[in-house]
Amino acid sequence: MEELIAKAARQLAQSKYAVALTGAGMSTESGVPDFRGPDGVWTKNPDAERQAYESYYRFQRDPKAYWIERMTAVPWLRDMEKAKPNPGHRALAELEEMSVLKSIITQNIDNLHQKAGSRKVLDYHGNISLLRCYSCDARYDLQQYELARLLAEDRLPPYCRKCNGVLKSDVVHFNEAIPADVARESQEEVACCDTMLICGTSAVVYPFAMLPRMAKQKRAGSKTVIIEVNASATPLTAEGVSDYLISGKTGVILPKILKKVKEIMKADS
Fold first, then answer.
1. CA 178 to CA 268: how far, in whole Å?
2. Is the pTM of this model over 0.70?
3. Domain range spanning residue 212?
């Protein structure tokens, strides 16, 4: 493993444009439950999964009912808001601070990368701490709207301050398209990258799962090296999309990679 960590660190240190893709495996190490794992939100509460599949349609039919349910019937969202970044999140933030990592594209909705200090984060499936306008895609921090007061005063749903459209959670629901700006920027990052660090995701949920495959299929002469940091092998490993796998927890492996990158850059300076 140490040899692979050194290999990954050397690749990152020499890269011109490194990008990280992250998934639920990073968040679970911060105590955020996944959805379909043994202790997942939906495993323990199948009704919550049914409601999740209906959320987007409920918003379209009745935004007020959507907001009332969201604020009164989903306690796991409040638990997620209390979660704190782990060493893996902080390692990626420091790699960005060192100008090694250029961006993070994440499936996670928990805002933990931003809490850790990462600046260029593309929330592919949205962000629990933001509201997004259904009409113009404008985004607002939750603190800009007193949702509890709107609920108490029977004035839900909230409305956009730019176009007066109805606001929904920024989180991308089932049957909802990935926001066009995030989809476009993610593809641009993939097109630019020469190194991709895949952390805590098997990349089986589409269209996110297309991103590492797009990186591998870039035109001849612009090969992207893809490094997996995952607890176990994934379809990316089996399909040969990733160049190699470092098995283990992201909160353990990423700080080791960071330390080695620092050593390499110091020696090369």
1. 41
2. yes
3. 1-32+84-129+178-269
